[in-house]
Amino acid sequence: NAKVSNITFINSGASNVATSTSTCLYTNPASSKHNITLEGVSVQLAGLANYNYGVVLDTCSNVAITNVIIGSSLVAKNSGIINCCMNLRNCIESIQLNQISLASVNPASNENLGLSLHNTSSIINNFNINVSSATGTNRGILTYNDQALQSQITNELFAGVVSSQDAVDYSIYNDSDSIIILDGVEINGPTYTSPIASRISCIGCFTTN
């Protein structure tokens, strides 16, 4: 069991060598983790690493993430390859996110990414995800399933906003063997759905951009 609450982290890793990675909160995938709670956590992505992450949870179950804010600097100084707010990997049992705000807007990054869901199924309520300014690709939400844990992943999102602009943009990039269900979600920016056993279902979705 682990609980982190009411704290601010600043990701300020200084290395900018080709393979450098800097992460604020990270779980080791060597063993599974259960009952993970993040509440009232703020993360600032301000490092110089080429791979810059706010939160990475790998091989976890019974996860509750509430009132979490992760943002990157508007100043072009950090992360030359990937600037990612939150990365959930191999998490499929009782993964719930509520009141999350993710902003990946670093103009020095080749790819700005808000939320990555790799081999992960989740329920997400009340969210605001904004990505922009990358030199290459902006992706608000990325799903990817290599079928290591289950044949198809499902992510359900309710009452939120996901926006992507500038460069090559995807508000939602839904890769193979993945279902995304959206209810009452504002979508600003193109979406992509893989033709391989994937779909995006929208109920009451709209755009203002």
Regions with little confidence, pLDDT below 50 for 5+ residues: none
Shape: globular
| H/E element order | EEEEEEEEEEEEEEE
Kindly report the average pLDDT value.
Answer: 90
In oligomeric terms, what are we looking at?
single chain
Alpha-carbon Rg, integer: 16 Å
How much helicity do the residues have? under 10%
Number of helices: 0
Estimated structural class: mainly beta
The percentage of residues in β strands lies in over 45%
Query: Order of strands in the sheet with the most strands?
Result: 1-3-5-7-9-11-13-15
The span between the termini is 42 Å
**What is the strand tally?**
15
Main β-sheet: number of strands, strand sense, barrel status? 8 strands, parallel
Descriptive notes:
With 209 residues, the chain is mainly beta. The chain has no helices and 15 strands. An 8-stranded parallel β-sheet has the order 1-3-5-7-9-11-13-15, with no helix packed on it. A 7-stranded parallel β-sheet has the order 2-4-6-8-10-12-14, with no helix packed on it. It starts with a strand and ends in a 6-residue tail after the last strand. The mean pLDDT is 90.
Features:
209 residues; mainly beta; 8-stranded parallel beta sheet; 7-stranded parallel beta sheet; 15 strands; globular
Outline of the structure:
The protein has strands at residues 2-11, 21-26, 33-45, 51-58, 60-72, 82-89, 95-104, 111-118, 122-132, 137-144, 153-165, 168-174, 178-188, 191-193, 199-203. The protein has 209 residues and is mainly β.
